[in-house]
């Protein structure tokens, strides 16, 4: 895949502004000055995030007969994190500007800055030190070492410690997967680029358990499948690429690792990781809990610890990806530019806007009746204020793919005007066929520039 497309950092500012103005994402605790690296999802934002999550869940579970779901607790036994290596090694090497007290990751500095121990502002830096990224808290009334627990820094471990439970209750056979969506927490020192890197985030992970020796084949399979997912979501393919982890970049548990990167307005960045984790995780938990965690093949009577192919995507980061990919400023006439979010209709917060041409002569009442009927199958929004063109533009800006206008022909002939967001084309559709026409348009949707 090509990395030729260019980026415009100013686009990021416009997306952040739109998100605040139209109710997608707000700064957390804004009335108190906000909290760095924390964000709240407004009425449109929570719909977008939930629909994106359901899109992923459908692709991972409903469309696969050998992938089941799980929702593990955020708080887990502290030994889980000892076994996984997070207690001892989940850290970043940090340095501090001795003048401004700003902190930087050591590996993010240039060779010259590391050699001279000076910050990006030219000030002296402190000695490098390790900073663990896990949040500690306490369970129960006493705040002592015996009550220490952690806010999970990833969701994968909840899947591994439930491996035996799932095998015994779901009758799954290798190869099979366990999918999970949930919150994770990392005490990131450097947070930037809006919701791209935050201390509280959501992950969409699937751990695929395979027979040792077959892991390379399944690793390549899931690399291809995950790219198909983004294509199905309508993401521009020239804004996606694979980036392989070199030998020095591999995590301690990984045999192989690739990132799917997306070209955000601030450059190429990781969107999803695909890793061959070998049998490291299950073997470690077996060692630390003192119980066998393995798989018995009923046909061959062979018993082994499965290898794991992991696909791990950030849900919150995916929200920023679809916002970035959908955002467009389009010239539609002389000195006329419309802002439009070209969301796939499956994830658009509002799928159908319904408008009466005017508020009189029973048109508003008829429009309300139609909107209420469409609610059964689509997410809808009713608007009767302002000129019809202005109402269309408001819906374009929040990514509504279809608008239905009720006019005098509706009252006389039972037809409505159906407007398409991307092309701005309009067609007359009978009320009896409207629902089916919308379903067909959603199912067959393909963005023109993908």
TrEMBL record:
Give the matching CDD domains: GlyRS-like_core (cd00774), GlyRS_anticodon (cd00858)
| PROSITE patterns noted in UniProt | AA_TRNA_LIGASE_II
Task: Return the broad EC class.
Answer: ligase
Where is it found, in Gene Ontology cellular component terms? cytoplasm; extracellular exosome; microvesicle
Write the Enzyme Commission number(s) for this entry.
Answer: 6.1.1.14
**Catalytic activity from the UniProt record:** tRNA(Gly) + glycine + ATP = glycyl-tRNA(Gly) + AMP + diphosphate
Q: Where in the cell is it found?
A: Cytoplasm
Q: Which UniProt keywords apply?
A: Aminoacyl-tRNA synthetase, ATP-binding, Cytoplasm, Ligase, Nucleotide-binding, Protein biosynthesis
Which residues bind substrate per the record? 105, 154, 201-205, 310-314
Question: What broad class describes the main subcellular location of this protein?
Answer: cytoplasm
UniProt: ATP binding residues: 186-188, 196-201, 270-271, 314-317
User: Which SUPFAM superfamilies does the protein's record reference?
Assistant: Class II aaRS ABD-related, Class II aaRS and biotin synthetases
Domain of life from the UniProt record: Bacteria
Read off the InterPro entries from this record.
aa-tRNA-synt_IIb, aa-tRNA-synth_II, aa-tRNA-synth_II/BPL/LPL, Anticodon-bd, Anticodon-bd_dom_sf, Gly-tRNA_synthase/POLG2, Gly_tRNA_ligase_bac, GlyRS-like_core
A molecular function (GO) term = bis(5'-nucleosyl)-tetraphosphatase (asymmetrical) activity
User: Which one GO biological process term can you cite for this protein?
Assistant: diadenosine tetraphosphate biosynthetic process
Q: Which Gene3D superfamilies would you find in this protein's record?
A: Anticodon-binding domain (3.40.50.800), Bira Bifunctional Protein, Domain 2 (3.30.930.10)
- What's a Pfam family this protein contains? HGTP_anticodon
What protein family is recorded?
Answer: Belongs to the class-II aminoacyl-tRNA synthetase family.
Quaternary state and interactors: Homodimer.
What's the protein here called? Glycine--tRNA ligase
Q: Which organism is it from?
A: Alkalispirochaeta americana
- Specify the taxonomic lineage: Bacteria, Pseudomonadati, Spirochaetota, Spirochaetia, Spirochaetales
